[in-house]
Amino acid sequence: MSHPRVVVVGGGLAGLTAALEAGDAGAQVTLLERSPRLGGATHSFRRGALEVDNGQHVFLRCCTAYRGLLRRLGVESDTVLQDRLDVPVVTGSGQTARLRRGALPAPLHLARALAGYRLLSPRDRSHAVRAALALGRLRTDDPDVDAVSFGTWLAAHGQSPAAVERLWELVTVATLNARAADASLALAATVVQRGLLAERGAADLGYATVPLSRLHGEPAARALAALGADVRCGVKVSAVRPDGDGGFTVLAGSRTGDAAFPADAVVLAVPSDAVAGLMPAGALAAPAAPAALGSAPIVNVHVVYDRPVTTSPFLAAVESPVQWVFDRTAAAGLDSGQYLALSVSAADADIGRPTADLLAQYLPAMHALVPGTRTAEVTEAFVTREPAATFRQAPGTLQLRPGPRTRLPGLALAGAWTRTDWPATMEGAVRSGRAAARAALQDARPPALLGAPG
Ligand SMILES: Cc1cc2nc3c(=O)[nH]c(=O)nc-3n(C[C@H](O)[C@H](O)[C@H](O)COP(=O)(O)OP(=O)(O)OC[C@H]3O[C@@H](n4cnc5c(N)ncnc54)[C@H](O)[C@@H]3O)c2cc1C
Fold it and tell me: Which pLDDT band, with edges at 50, 70 and 90, does 110 fall under?
């Protein structure tokens, strides 16, 4: 069988990567996505004159698999990646500082960055360096480490409440979508090890200069078409059935009716709460585990001002309801005024609040962070809500994340929530897609004639 039929379910970054990986390896690929568009949790939509992202996304230089996907799609030039991590930080009372890494090799670059971070006292800075080095020594695959809350660990390692809020949560709330008290120590240590300690450039920050659908979904559709893949949006899969001969039948429905897709291998790249319902009985060793991961929300407040209010492409806020602010004016296609996206992770308190309430809190909060907003007029403001932006990256989640292989050879799992050794990020999604496609193709019966994965 030189061209195994691979059906990929889910068109987020994990599914797109799996489909490309399988297509590049010579498989005949069908991708089925429930929603009308590809990109999953990373997409954009039109609202009047604006092309709006469902939520601001950033990546780091250490996100090598994700950056590989950008290259594969030919869109790396539609992103910027800092030469050197440099984050302007503003407090809710208007104090400013910068987190700028040094040019020295890791981990000395970190000491230089902290030495210049004047929002921390000298005591907090030196204790922070010690804590970072201690985090570097933790085993992130150890369930005992994962069982501990990052907040508890920080307190036990001499980190003051100010250091937690002004430094540690700056790094981990956005990457883990959880406050320190609610986050897994193992996942926090992963962020510090990969982003801060591995190489001096690892945490250099990157983001898209075009809307997310133009960065991911649309170029992926073109790349898959070039591989001859059959990509269908608006198709909801209801079950994957073993066909009794080592293959599978994927049952799906759409507005035009029901369909069955025969497959030699299947990659299920759907969110964690959807996976068990689609799997054949007995395929998952712990069928309740994925749904037990739960989910955590992210809210974005989008504000258009009638004039430019800042020259900074982005900034981070501490001791403010605002966490990160990104200038999306050019990316969204706005040619006058300025469009800022305010990103709020771990947004449990905000996800259910009415838009008017959120705007009444967030718009005045911007006055301290970006003084130019005090005199500018808000011409448009709205909110996007993602109730299940990531899985809840709490203590004890390591054991709930299955790897790519199921008990049925040829049926593999992908998704940022699977066991990727990364937090729930675009990087994790891409890694999972790659691993799942390779596992599915290796295990497909009869064996696929595709050579060993690289
Ligand atoms: C607002 C927001 C901000 C974020 N910020 C960042 C960030 O700054 N940096 C970062 O790295 N990560 C960030 N993330 C997380 C990142 O976007 C996700 O981890 C990643 O995109 C998940 O990809 P995935 O393919 O695993 O899942 P998803 O993107 O959720 O894809 C799953 C797909 O499966 C489809 N599906 C579900 N059920 C079915 C079915 N029955 N049949 C067919 N299709 C189905 C869904 O429609 C969906 O398209 C953010 C997420 C959000 C929402």
Answer: confident
